[in-house]
Amino acid sequence: MLTSLNKILLIFMEELRLKFADLFAGIGGFRLAFEKADYECVFSCEIDQACQEVYLNNFGDKPKSDIRKIDLKTLPYFDVLTAGFPCQPFSICGRRKGFHDTRGTLFFHICEIIEHINPPVVVLENVKHILHHDQGRTLEVILYSLEDMGYVVNYETVNSRDFGLPQNRERVIFIATKTRKFNFKNLRKSYIFPTLSEFLCTSGKFEYLNTEEYTMIDNPKQQPSGLIFVGYRNKSIWKTGIRPNTEHLSRVHHQPNRIYSIAGVHPTIPSQETSGRFFIYIPEENVVRKLTIRECYRIMGFPDDFKIHSNLAECYKQIGNSVCIPVIYELANQIKKQIFSYQDREGEIVNNGMKS
């Protein structure tokens, strides 16, 4: 009898769980965070085969491949749509055209799914540059597209450094809702920066630099971002016509040859190992070494038992393109608290014949 009752309760609780769709899923950063917050993933989509492989190994679920080929009629209902979508160029024929200005872009296919399912909440993530992309036109189209479909939209630049990770990583989060506007001010942040030293592996195959391969600077200071720039690698790069004391900097990327102390935080983990970051200074040992790939996953908030790809270059690419788990986890909890709990309270008031 108890077993049958437990089964009934389990089915009932499953029905009550909020459901989400994981679009442009990558290796499953959104899924890790939302499932940790007790949401249920009912659909996933990711075109990259290497990412599909990692996703399958970790979740036992292979994402659908091409968002452009999804049959909308086969989609299950979900309460929340999540997408770390690519910032594909938007072709804009006119102003304030909303949904119709997205035609021909991958964002348009997200909008098609949103319009078909009409979920209560949409969560989109992108690099902070999207706010200024194409002189602000891309942002304008995103906002008007969502508003055209009846959503109230709010967005904010969030930094993983404020959520317990030793990485200065800024990303823009858009949250569109059907009810009241999401309040980013309610996000619980940690105002004491964690340090890289707390996230390092104690053993493993470490890649050290010889002393002649780098130069330390005098009197390094911690920057407001939490970074402590202590030196740079002595790489042979283009030096014609550049200012004195900036010879170590790339002309394209501003930080790739810099070395940072583990007493501070790390710059944004890039999507390509060849971007040249990842080198850290360990004061206690007076050595410079490269972050291990496992350490890269740690400072993105991934658990140590996460199954990574067998190809190291793919691993760097995948983790650099992913999301920080504690950031998305806090968002998932706040969405539940601000949007769905609010709706439940409102429903109880109506059902009890009371007025708010």
Q: Please state the overall shape, judged from the principal axes of the Cα atoms.
A: globular
Mean pLDDT: 85
Q: Which regions contain 5 or more consecutive residues with pLDDT less than 50?
A: 9-13, 250-254, 345-356
Q: List the secondary-structure elements in sequence, H or E.
A: HEHEHEHEHEEEEEEEEEHHH
* Number of domains as seen in the coordinates: 2
**Major β-sheet strand ordering:** 2-1-3-4-7-5
EC number: 2.1.1.37
GO molecular function, one term: DNA (cytosine-5-)-methyltransferase activity
Catalytic activity: a 2'-deoxycytidine in DNA + S-adenosyl-L-methionine = a 5-methyl-2'-deoxycytidine in DNA + S-adenosyl-L-homocysteine + H(+)
Keywords: Methyltransferase, Restriction system, S-adenosyl-L-methionine, Transferase
Describe this structure in words.
This protein has helices at 2-16, 29-36, 49-59, 106-117, 137-148, 293-298, 312-320, 325-351; strands at residues 19-23, 40-44, 80-83, 121-127, 152-159, 167-168, 170-177, 214-216, 229-233, 258-261, 266-267, 279-282, 287-290. The model is unreliable at 9-13, 250-254 and 345-356 (pLDDT under 50). By secondary structure, it is of the alpha/beta class. The protein folds into 2 domains: 9-190 and 319-351, Vaccinia Virus protein VP39 (Rossmann fold), CATH 3.40.50; 196-313, DNA Methylase, Chain A, domain 2. The protein is built from 8 helices and 13 strands. The two termini are 42 Å apart. This is Cytosine-specific methyltransferase. The active site is at residue 87. Keywords: Methyltransferase, Restriction system, S-adenosyl-L-methionine, Transferase. It comes from Halotia branconii CENA392.
